[in-house]
Write a structure and sequence with these properties.
The protein is an alpha+beta fold. It is built from 28 helices and 32 strands.
Length: 974
């Protein structure tokens, strides 16, 4: 592209008469706005596809011989408050990396869209009556302006919002793909693994031809042949196997919000993340996604992606895969109870059992307390029925998350049931306690207080026996480590003396042989609750018939748009009204809910689903839309998907899992977004819509920018910008004349300590803000914001400007003279080090080295062009506007955005001399400047001739000389 000629400063801008061309915030603004317009006009950052209508700014397609580099930020939500200076940290980092890789010749794809469905806009609509779309689009416009002002090199043609009708259409289409699929655990995938999603029509065909037996389903007779089922029964069978299915599901019901929440949206205190309302357990008819079918793949494939260990651990823990055994306990006068345990070797140490309050064993309990019942077990109730009923009511008021958080409190009651331990026949009291969840495992546990800290605490609280099965010294605590097995034998098997691993194998085999157990694997992961009782979300592309069974709408009926409603809010209730039920806002438009359609058998009346999808739906697949943002015919063109995402697309191994080359965002999305996106991608992979098994190859979690916040005597945060230092205040700070306390925390609205990018643009310029945020420290660490420190980054850019441009008349001050050898050595060492740092996202240290080179040039009478131009090119990814301006003033007609990044000359990386240290018995006695290629013999001779070494030897003979060429010689006297 041809640049706009460099211009003089606007004469209306204030400047000192003697330095009218000084690089100030005003001049920075002129330069930055002009170059942003230039980039947009010329399509400088258009990312070219290998085929199709998306080319670069010169109309060319991507060069397939070059590497591809797809870099992406986590979807921003367009808040009405706009950005604070903590938000751009990741955006600047990805922009720096993308610009660097572009200058290295890569095909770079970098774009940014908006995750625009969500509760804040809906809540604002409830308060004001303004449609959420109006609010959201206005917020997007604010954020786009702020991000453009930052100089981010996104391809604007690829931007979109999840609320765009074209995007909603494909989100709904993906839902229908999941609804139209089932999971075949025996099917072989293209990558050689076993287990994959298949179209539901293939299951129907196998049921029809007898290849598969008809599964047992509610409402369908067991053992019936497919041919003997009517149409409705067949649909019920197929619906029970779909990856997206409707069921009566225990849910987290939040009356204060009027909606159900996923477990991940509930705090450890059992309250909603948004609004902090109480959350209760209810059983409601909801959409679910069978993410549990992918539990093993979601766990195992973490080994194939380059993610932080912390995030991988969080996902593994959330999935919670555990190997162990199911063990069956016979219950006197009741049904059998099966437990899952990861430690079947400790069965001989089980002294009681615990079942969840919802466990069916508690539907019938003994009429009276059995002999041996202790007062501590009954909760003060006269009968087991009274105790269990009261405890069940208490547990129903808590969520699963809250119950787990309260596990240390150890509440519970004896149920009156006694269960026989299958290894020794001992009768164990069966308790119910709310820390055991019906939705996890079997809803029952065997308690081994000698080997589990939680069971040990429960046993102590309820005066229950403790038996140790692992040798050790603990006498008043659980023995949780490994050791030799003890106290574990009966007439048929002895585990005593074995190690834990061997004992597990032996006892599992014995249980299987006796028919009272079996080795198995269980998971903590539950199916994804996918319904929300909200207005502002994607409607389900589903209708229900007269049998209340779901029917997928045809693709040509998409998108299903949100209707107008008289009220945007779901009906909310008293936050403590646990018996309330959802009433979604979509249900208030009867003409939309009850619709007449011809779905192939003539016009009929159907009922739409009045729930909407969660806001996670749109963010599960947005990376694919960046590749092909205008596609109408397919989700994504297979050619483009393979070019940007396929295994081996960027020099990776051909058998890799593929994915986005660099994905940057906060660790707070470790479980929610990332797990859901991986699940959707794997379904799309199984169904042939994408070519790789993972969406994101490399994940990088940036830190946070923190800032001081202040609270008054009530503990309420006050505006940090209005706080002043006050020596007369006991805290050193006041607000409106009153003392306030200072604290440190994440920048944001809630702490009232926001600094906006607009403030920084006005006071320093966007390039200075970029340099400062990138120089504050390693990207993965949180860092403190100090506005006063920003000036240091501004001075770096001012010195760079002065090395090229005269502050008095705007002329070039560089020289065309050849640089000295010293300057060349500094230059090429900087090129080598900065290239290495940039390749590994060590942007802060790269900036430090650029400053060293820049400072070196300021010591010269005039900076040589041969050193200045590489410095400008290396600065360009970090401070692109000033670099573009200097590049143009240096006489270049095309943008440096695509100019080759400097390459170090190895000849100048070799040092002329190095310092060799001479030691005697490890103590330094002398030094010498030597050639880096000096031989061991030469260095030995130099050391022995050194005066300091001779003095230290004091005439003694030399036993040996240790040479570590070229930097160390150690002489050892005899």
């Amino acid at each position: 592209m041809t640049t706009t000629p460099a211009q003089s400063p606007d004469p209306s801008v204030e400047s000192r008469d003697d330095v009218p061309f000084r690089y100030t915030a005003d001049l920075a603004q002129q330069i930055e706005l002009r170059w942003q317009d230039e980039w947009q006009e010329r399509g400088t950052f258009f990312a070219a596809n290998p085929t199709g209508h998306l080319t670069d700014g010169d109309g060319r397609h991507a060069d397939p011989s070059k590497r591809t580099f797809f870099v992406m930020d986590m979807f921003p939500y367009p808040s009405g408050a706009g950005l604070h200076i903590g938000h751009p940290l990741g955006y600047i980092a990805t922009d720096v990396v993308a610009r660097f890789r572009r200058m290295q010749g890569d095909n770079v794809l970098h774009a940014l869209g908006f995750d625009a469905f969500g509760l804040p806009a809906e809540q604002y609509a409830v308060q004001t009556g303004q449609h959420p779309r109006v609010t959201t689009e206005a917020n997007i416009a604010i954020m786009q302006r702020q991000l453009r002002r930052l100089g981010l090199a996104h391809d604007p043609r690829r931007s979109f919002a999840t609320i765009d009708p074209e995007y909603v259409r494909w989100t709904q289409w993906i839902f229908l793909q999941i609804f139209g699929a089932w999971y075949d655990e025996d099917a072989v995938r293209p990558d050689g693994g076993r287990g994959k999603a298949r179209p539901i029509e293939e299951l129907e065909a196998e049921l029809a031809d007898g290849t598969r037996p008809v599964p047992v389903v509610d409402g369908v007779r067991e053992g019936v042949a497919w041919a003997d089922l009517d149409v409705v029964e067949r649909r019920r069978v197929l619906d029970s196997r779909r990856l997206a299915y409707v069921s009566e599901t225990p849910v987290n019901w939040c009356p204060g919000l009027g909606t159900v929440l996923a477990n991940e949206e509930v705090t450890s205190e059992g309250r909603s993340e948004r609004g902090n309302f109480p959350v209760f357990q209810r059983s409601l008819r909801q959409w679910n996604m069978r993410i549990t079918a992918y539990a093993d793949r979601l766990t195992d494939d973490l080994e194939h992606i380059d993610w932080p260990d912390k995030v991988k651990s969080m996902q593994r823990n959330w999935i919670g895969r555990s190997s162990g055994a199911h063990v069956t306990f016979a219950v006197e006068g009741g049904q059998e109870v099966t437990v899952f345990t990861t430690r079947p070797d400790t069965l001989f140490g089980a002294t009681f059992m615990v079942v969840a309050p919802e466990h069916p064993l508690l539907d019938e309990v003994p009429a009276a307390w059995p002999d041996g019942t202790r007062d501590a077990w009954t909760g003060g109730h006269p009968t087991p029925a009274a105790a269990v009923a009261a405890y069940r009511a208490e547990a129903a008021a808590k969520t699963a998350v809250e119950r787990q958080a309260d596990a240390g409190r150890k509440t519970g009651v004896f149920t009156g049931h006694l269960a026989a331990n299958p290894v020794n026949g001992e009768l164990l009291p069966v308790f119910t306690a709310d820390y055991v969840l019906m939705g996890y495992g079997t809803g029952a546990i065997m308690a081994v207080p000698g080997g589990d800290s939680r069971d040990h605490a429960f046993a102590q609280a309820f005066d229950l026996p403790i038996v140790y099965t692992i040798d050790g010294e603990e006498t008043d605590a659980a023995r949780t480590g490994d050791g030799a097995v003890i106290n574990s034998a009966n007439d048929e098997i002895s585990l005593d003396g074995l190690d834990v691993a061997t004992a597990k194998e032996r006892i599992t085999a014995w249980l299987e042989a006796k028919g009272v157990g079996a080795g198995t694997v269980t998971y903590r992961l539950r199916d994804w609750l996918f319904s929300r009782q909200r207005y502002w979300g994607e409607p389900f592309p589903i209708v229900y018939d007269e049998n209340d069974l779901p029917i997928a709408l045809p693709s040509d009926a998409l998108p299903v748009a949100l209707p107008d409603v008289p009220d945007y809010s779901p009906r909310t209730f008293d936050p403590d009204d646990a018996d309330s039920s959802p009433e979604p806002p979509l249900g208030r438009n009867e003409d939309w809910v009850n619709v007449t359609l011809d779905l192939g058998d003539g016009p009929r009346t159907y009922r739409r689903d009045t729930n909407t999808m969660p806001n996670w739906a749109g963010s599960c697949w947005y990376y694919l839309r960046y590749l092909d943002p205008a596609s109408d015919d397919v989700l994504v063109d297979p050619v483009l998907e393979k070019f940007w995402l396929a295994p081996g697309h960027s020099g990776d191994a051909a058998d890799s899992v593929g994915g986005v080359d660099l994905y940057v965002g906060g660790v707070e999305h470790a479980v929610l977004h990332l797990l859901y996106a991986r699940f959707w991608h794997k379904v799309l992979f199984d169904l042939g819509h994408v070519s790789g098994a993972e969406p994101f190859h490399k994940l990088f979690n940036q830190g946070y920018i923190q800032a001081y916040a202040y609270t008054d005597e009530r503990g309420v945060h006050v505006p940090a910008a209005e706080v002043v230092e006050d020596a007369s205040s006991p805290t050193g700070f006041t607000w409106n004349g009153e003392p306030v306390n200072r604290e440190y925390g994440k920048m944001g609205k809630s702490l009232k300590n926001m600094v906006t990018p607009d403030e920084m643009y006005a006071e320093y310029g966007a390039d200075t803000l970029r340099v400062y945020e990138m120089s504050m420290g390693p990207l993965d660490l949180s860092r403190p914001w100090e506005t006063r420190a920003v000036v240091g980054s501004q001075r770096f850019l001012q010195r760079l400007w002065r090395n090229v441009v005269s502050e008095t008349d705007g002329s070039l001050v560089v020289t065309d003279d050849a640089p000295s050898d010293e300057t060349l050595r500094v230059l090429h060492r900087t090129i080598a080090d900065v290239t290495e740092d940039m390749a590994h996202m060590r942007i802060n240290t790269a900036i430090a080295k650029l400053i060293v080179l820049n400072n070196h040039l300021t010591t010269l009478d005039a900076a040589p062009r041969a050193a200045v131009e590489p410095l400008v090119l290396m600065t360009a990814p970090i401070a692109p506007h000033i670099a573009e301006e200097l590049w143009a003033r240096l006489g270049h007609e095309r943008s440096l955005a695509l100019a080759p990044y400097p390459v170090a000359d190895p000849a100048y990386l070799v040092e002329d001399t190095v310092t060799c240290v001479f030691q005697v018995q490890g103590k330094v006695r002398g030094r010498a400047e030597v050639s880096p290629q000096a031989s061991d013999d030469d260095l030995r001779a130099l050391a022995l001739q050194d005066a300091g070494v001779q003095r230290a030897l004091a005439g003694r003979d030399v036993r040996t000389v240790i040479v570590r060429a070229p930097k160390l010689v150690n002489v050892v006297p005899a």
